[in-house]
Amino acid sequence: MCYFSADAENRSGTAAIQYNAKLMADTAPDKIKFSSLNLDPQILKAVEEEGYTEPTPIQAQAIPHVLAGRDLMAMAQTGTGKTAAFTLPLLQLLLPHASTSASPARHPIRALILTPTRELAIQVEKSVETYSKHVPLRSTVVFGGVDIKTQKPALMKGVEILVATPGRLLDHVESRNVLLNQVQVLILDEADRMLDMGFMPDLKRILTLLPKQRQTLLFSATFSDDIKKLAQDFLANPVTVEAERRNTAAETVKQSVLMVDHDNKFSVLADLLRARGLGSQALVFTRTKLTAARLARKLDREGIPADAIHGDKTQLERIKALDAFKEGKITALVATDVAARGLDIDQLPLVVNYELPTNAEDYVHRIGRTGRAGASGEAISLVDGEEERRLVEIEKLLKREFPRERAAVSPAPRAAPSHHRPARPSTPSHVKKPAEADDWFMKPYEPSQTASKIDEQPSHNQDKPKKQIGALLKRPPVKH
Ligand code: AMP
Q1: Nearest Cα residue to atom 13 of ligand 1
Q2: What does residue 84 show for φ and ψ, rounded to 5 degrees?
Q3: Is the distance from the beta carbon of residue 83 to the nearest atom of ligand 1 less than 6 Å?
């Protein structure tokens, strides 16, 4: 279960999340207060300024262990407050080393936070900045896809806390921009995703560069056998804490399955979105980049404002699509699993699985985007015969069976009459003007040969400069 409702925009325009105190009061262990967690007043001040009144369950459980110097294995998804769960005690542990000196030598890297994607890296570093604003500890973030030279100055000045994606970190190691021999705390955020993305070899290399005597914290949305093995190899006698029950999907999400022939998926999706009204938004998942791109274009041409985010889009395109979605200018945001990772979208009522994920655990991640803070959310999966095998895997993981309802299919695909288009405050630039009919798009959806090859399971060097995976949020803030 997630504990936050996201219903406001903060000053910087990014999604602000309001913590649902009632839910937490129901579940927090012994109603622990921040003031009883032994955190420095300057750290607590930043927490208070964020408007947090009580620690979330994962924070209440994890912080005392981290402060005690224990290795930690924490099961927590985005939305549970996991970032503060490791950042707040980390700042406390590093406080004795805080220095206002300008000398880089006084600011060696003491904590390394590894994340699978650049989006998450940016988000985490932003949180580190927020919580450390009243203490003289420095942080910065490095990730692939941007010129490595632009990241060097901040590293050269010295930072205590470095947030990084594994591939780019190794690039900096090779360029001798960073030294990791004084790292006291290593944090692996979304470790399950790092393994899925093939970062194991990079992680192993990074581990050899760190002191053996260190504290290691592992955060993961799920505890698969691979994660347990990773913990065995990299952690010493860890404490296990759990914000979420094993592989359960949010209980507040109404999940359903519609059986539909592959060729009818598009019309079922379009009908579903129209029936709810184009003002009601949906995050639509596909397995491949190519399908995501095609689907968004096709929806848009059928009068359902849509855009896609996936690994082949530039950073700018992704920011535009996400902003348009957050501002309500588009009805459907079509995303691949990798691109949607860590997305924090306000009050998202519906997730549609246009294609089921290859990895059953991704289903849990996907539907976790809706139904936050006890708000009702819905997840609908459009499943064709070929995908039933995947559905069974998901059911096994969730230990429940979904009734297989047959989707009603409209007689024929129809182009939306112009009055179907919702009134938009202004035409977002990413929504293409209705073009002349393009026969290609009138054809029923067909899986392409290439699509199945371009299954978006990125390689370990996903964050290397060659690949354009843009940040969804703002430019990384760099503290000097
Ligand atoms: P995370 O799971 O780290 O992505 O955090 C999800 C959201 O919860 C972020 O927007 C945080 O600002 C917010 N948050 C974290 N801890 C608390 C807390 N104790 N009270 C209220 N909001 C919180």
Answers
A1: 81
A2: -70, -30
A3: yes
Distance between CA atoms of residues 462 and 166, nearest Å: 9
Asked if 468 and 145 count as a contact pair (C-beta separation under 8 A), the reply is yes
210 versus 415: the higher-pLDDT residue is 210
**Highest-confidence range of 22-36, 325-339, 409-423, 447-461, by mean pLDDT?**
325-339
Question: Is the full-model pTM beyond 0.85?
Answer: no
3-state SS record for 402-423: CCEEECCCCCCCCCCCHHHCCC
Average the pLDDT over 64-72 and give the result.
97
Q: Is 14 in the pocket of ligand 1 (CB under 6 A)?
A: no
In this structure, the residue with its CA closest to atom 1 of ligand 1 is 81
Residues of the chain with CATH 3.40.50.300: 8-242, 253-406
Beta strands at 282-286 and 350-353: parallel, antiparallel or unpaired: parallel
How far is residue 255 CA from its own chain's centroid?
21
Both tokens assigned to 266: 């598009």
| C-alpha–C-alpha distance, residues 378 and 353, integer Å | 11
**Domain at 8-242, CATH class:** alpha beta
Atom of ligand 1 lying closest to residue 77 CA = 2
Q: Which residues contact 472 (CB under 8 A, 6 or more apart)?
A: 119, 309, 318, 319, 322, 339, 342, 343
Residues 116-147 pLDDT 10s: 988 899 999 999 999 999 999 999 999 998 99
Does residue 17 line the site of ligand 1, with CB under 6 A? yes
Query: Residue 116 Cα, ligand 1 centroid: separation in angstroms?
Result: 20
404: part of which helix (H) or strand (E)?
A: strand 404-406
- CATH code linked to domain 253-406: 3.40.50.300
